[in-house]
Amino acid sequence: MAAIVHSVDIGRRPDEVFAYVTDPSKFTEWQAAVVSASAESDGPLQQGSRMVMTRRMGKRDQTMTAELTDVVVSLPRFTSDLAQADESVKKMANFQFDTVVFGHGDPIVVGADAAVAALAASL
Questions:
Q1: CA atoms within 13 A on the CB side of 68
Q2: Pick from 32, 81, 82: nearest CA to 55
Q3: Do 100 and 117 meet the contact criterion of CB atoms below 8 Å apart?
Q4: What residues form DSSP beta bridges with 34?
Q5: Which of 95, 94, 93, 84 is nearest to 115 (CA)?
Q6: Where are the beta strands (DSSP E) in the chain?
Q7: Is 116 exposed, middle or buried (0-12, 13-18, 19+ CB in 10 A)?
Q8: Model confidence pLDDT, tens digit, residues 24-55
Q9: 54 with 61: CB under 8 angstroms?
Q10: Which residues contact 61 (CB under 8 A, 6 or more apart)?
Q11: Reduced to 3 states, what is the DSSP secondary structure of residue 18?
Q12: pLDDT-based confidence at 12, cuts 50/70/90?
């Protein structure tokens, strides 16, 4: 059986996306069945954190409490110093060039300077 694959490109850094999708107060923004959600304690989610969530199930709302039993964060990292990487991108945005080749991913062969400038502006 062939795998079903779906991908979404998000114009944010992985750590920002992870923070968003693990924030119970944001669940209603991206999970259609969630009516409300809140953490029982302040701070980032971690092992032992509990949250109360109400989901619409058919015609009724069901409230449940969930406890995180395990948290595994494996954000892709291509550099150990993200601040320095951001500064490098901002410096590159001051130059004109057609092509940029990265150590990972596909090269940009048309309009590379505009793409780098757009990335720099988002940092």
A1: 17
A2: 32
A3: no
A4: 55
A5: 93
A6: 34-39, 50-57, 60-67
A7: buried
A8: 899 999 888 999 999 998 877 788 889 999 99
A9: yes
A10: 35, 54, 55
A11: helix
A12: confident
